[in-house]
Amino acid sequence: LLAADLVFMLPVVNELARKLGHTLACAEDAARLLEQGELVGVMPEGFKGLGKPFADRYKLQRFGRGGFVSTALRAGTPIVPCSIVGAEEIYPMIGNAKTVARLLGFPYFPLTPTFPWLGPLGAIPLPTKWTIQFGEPIPTDGYPPEAAEDPMLMFNLTDQVREQIQHTLYKLLVQRRSVFF
Where are the domains of the chain? Predict the structure, then answer.
């Protein structure tokens, strides 16, 4: 997975992320991995997706500037949309301590029903059932390399990925019996 700078600045998280194979979320690292034939995971919502309130769970946020589409176009690799249901309930964010976040240099500081009230125990995730579904690959090999510079194509492909993921999320949510099983 590509991870934000913040992940690599946190002492314990940095080491864990590296051991799990994460790398810096930048076009150069993504391009290098794709050239080596590696699978690259991207979270196009970024911190906007992680830091949204519980009431907005499963409502996808804007997908940044489409860097993942540009990288896929340059490499000629398909984009495989991935929808995950269950992840957005493990830490239900009911508030955001913006002042604390600013002091710590974080994009947000979540307040959940258990964190920070229960201290370290509040960081234990709720035991939700996850469903992960991969969508139909969106081919990019039919475009010339300079297509990565076309803002309309970038917008259209980014929107296509976002819409496919959002539609699948809604479908999976309707099929789900319970958050926990």
Answer: 45-61+81-90+125-181, 95-124
Asked if 49 and 60 count as a contact pair (C-beta separation under 8 A), the reply is yes
pLDDT in tens, 86-95: 999 999 999 9
- How far apart, in whole angstroms, are the C-alpha atoms of residue 88 and residue 130? 10
Residue among 72, 67, 85, 77 nearest 133 (CA): 85
Cα torsion 45, 20, 18, 69: sign: negative
Per the listing, tokens 């990288």 go with: 71
The Cβ of residue 130 has, within 10 Å, a number of other Cβ atoms equal to 10
- Asked if 48 and 61 count as a contact pair (C-beta separation under 8 A), the reply is yes
Distance from chain centroid for Cα 42? 6
Q: What is the pTM of this model?
A: 0.91
CA 73 to CA 145: how far, in whole Å?
A: 6
